[in-house]
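Team,

Forwarding the record for the chain on the shared tracking sheet. I've put the sequence and predicted structure together so nobody has to dig through attachments.
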Amino acid sequence: MSSDEEEHEEISFECSRIITESHKQPIYGISICEQALPDENDQAVLFATCAINQICVYKYKRVNEKSTVHLIQSYVDSDEKEYFYDCKWTIFNNRPVIAAGGLRGVVRILDVGHQSHLKPLRHLGSVNQISFAKRQPFLMASACSNYTVSLWDAEAALCLAHYVGPDHHKQGVLAVDLNYEGTFIVSGGQDNIVCVWSTQEPEIHENLLIARRGPLFKEFRLSIPHRVHFSVFHSATIHQHYVDSVKWLSENIIVSKSADHVYCIWKFDAKKKESNILFRWHRSEGSDIIFDVRLGLSVTRKLMAIGRRDGSIFVWDTTILPVQPTVFTLRESKHLIRNLAFSYNGQILIAGNEIGQIFIWRHRKQT
């Protein structure tokens, strides 16, 4: 818990830059690299976006009150019918890489420093969202349209486990998040269900040891994903509509959002059948159901943000809930914000909308 002075600090950001990608289509994925850039100040970040069949990597920096954004890399998939739904940064051997997955069920992994493609991760359904564990950055979970959650050693390109069975999602999985340690996965789907899965089964550990040894070993070629049939927790009562965003706030507290604009912060306990709901809030968006609008969380989990249909952004200080959110508005922002991301120090917030616009907000120091 933060100090009282920090808890009640006003949330104040100002829009620093606006750029528009040439495709002018919805930007479903935005991710900011948490690795600090060498020889740069804390106002410089790499960030990536994904939309249609392309991935773009940008560098944003601010020096002497002047900000610049440069497109440093762009990847266009050879399949014109591909559509990327999510992208995430992670680290392989101290090298930043960006992973993106979507309609065709292939997660592409780009080594940004070497400008090369690593081995793709192939799924049997569309990949709606991906997540990496901070403590084990090679560990990746994916949410698929074929009702499954998959666990990968993404660096080795080996699938460790499929979470599917009698106690699982009955429709497509829309959202997934690995906790910091990589020991639990939370998922949400079109069946209104939230599940928590364990990555600690012995068979998964055995597959992970094989993956760490590398593809030259016979065991690597013969290994098959372990099938996990039972979640450690699932609930169909937290939400009444598609669960399209889930995030770990702490080791046992989860925030989830559904397409009918209901937000819940709840405590996970594997020994209990029902969740302990700490905070529930319903925002007004009229009668429309909108899904694939995702929550953004700062690394410290102090700030939580969500985009709105009218182009505004709600931001909460999670240390002093329940409170009304701070609302960010901008004359140039009039379309649905689908995704947003905070920089590793929480000083920068980047959002993307339905017509390919990217808004870079930076923390404004109070005088």
